[in-house]
Amino acid sequence: MLMYIKLITLSFFLISLPVNAQNKLTSPFSLTDYQNMRTEYLDAIKHNPDIVHEGRFYYSKRKLDSVNIIKHEIIRQEWIRKGVDPSAITKEVLQNAESNRQYYLQYAYFTKNRKGYDFYYSDDSKLILFNNKDLTIEYSFAKDTDSEYLHNKKIATANQYFNSNGQLKRTDSFILPSQEGAEKEITGLSKEYNVIGKLLFEADWEKDFKHSKAKVIAASDQLIQQYILNNIKRNNDGISDIQAKEMTANYLKYAQKTIQKFKNDDKVSIWFVTYWTVTSRIELKINDKTLQLIDIRDFKMQE
């Protein structure tokens, strides 16, 4: 049972940040640290009899043996953590879930430790780090530009670095959705640099936008209403105005909507509002300052 507790307690580290920096995560590791950890990990798995290499990952045989014994309990606890009613998790359900081996194999990775963080490396050139509080770091090695993605349950920060000199190329932060399937929302400061450190782009996603998402959605509904109404009349000969207006209202009521912030090369603050239905996707580009329509595009969904 002690082994079980150790295996399943893989929560992550929440960095304590001052109030004015709570929308950005920072790593306790340097780029050289990441390189050294990768080398340390690859050296550790060489000629190690405890290592089982399967797919992209390296597992500890000792951990695999333990995990296979208690895999049903691991799956059960994982589902309960995600909000599944414990009474619905029957023995038959657990047996059927065995086919999704990542539910429990993730607890058998061969890991090393640095500065209180456990870490492992995968064959897709990705280094994953975590400790027992609330932060995960994913560092991906690439030919020209490495990427660093830090996230806890609420926010995430994505950084890119030039391999040639370690210069920061781009940084963005996001508010993570509380529900699965929802979109993350860009927040804080975004900056982009060239290889010698010259600032090419900067955006403050709070200060540079004066309207709320709710107000933009309301304005967008007004802007798209006439467009939808005209389409309905054009594609339905003989339809009455009352029927067309009713169909337009139903479209606005049932279409799924997503909204994102954007700044163009002229530093104009812009909202992208997208309306999704089974048959179409309509995108509106709206000026934040004036709430006027910049552009509208209609895409038919492929059957």
Notes on the structure:
- With 303 residues, the chain is an alpha+beta fold.
- It has a domain of 88 residues: Nuclear Transport Factor 2, Chain: A (Roll), CATH 3.10.450.
- 30% of the residues lie in helices and 32% in strands.
- The strands form three sheets. The chain has a nine-stranded antiparallel sheet, with helices on one face.
- α7 packs across α8.
- It starts with a helix and ends with a strand.
Task: Present the secondary structure layout.
Blueprint: H1 2-8, H2 31-45, E1 51-54, E2 57-60, H3 61-69, H4 71-81, H5 91-97, H6 102-105, E3 112-114, E4 117-122, E5 126-130, E6 136-140, E7 145-151, E8 155-162, E9 168-175, E10 185-193, E11 199-204, H7 213-235, H8 241-254, E12 256-263, E13 269-276, E14 280-287, E15 293-300
Antiparallel strand pairs: 1-2, 3-4, 4-5, 5-6, 6-7, 7-8, 8-9, 9-10, 10-11, 12-13, 13-14, 14-15
Architecture (CATH level 2) name of the domain at 213-300: Roll
Order of secondary-structure elements: HHEEHHHHEEEEEEEEEHHEEEE
- In whole angstroms, the N-to-C terminal distance is 51 Å
Biggest sheet layout:
9 strands, antiparallel
Q: Indicate the radius of gyration in whole angstroms.
A: 25 Å
Looking at CATH, which topology of the domain at 213-300 would you report?
A: Nuclear Transport Factor 2, Chain: A
Q: Helix fraction? A: 25-40%
* Global structural class: alpha+beta
Beta-strand content bin: 25-35%
| Count of DSSP strands | 15
Report the CATH C-level class of the domain at 213-300.
Alpha Beta
The number of distinct helices, counting runs of at least 4 residues, comes to: 8
Give the spatial strand order of the biggest sheet: 3-4-5-6-7-8-9-10-11
Name the shape in a single word: globular
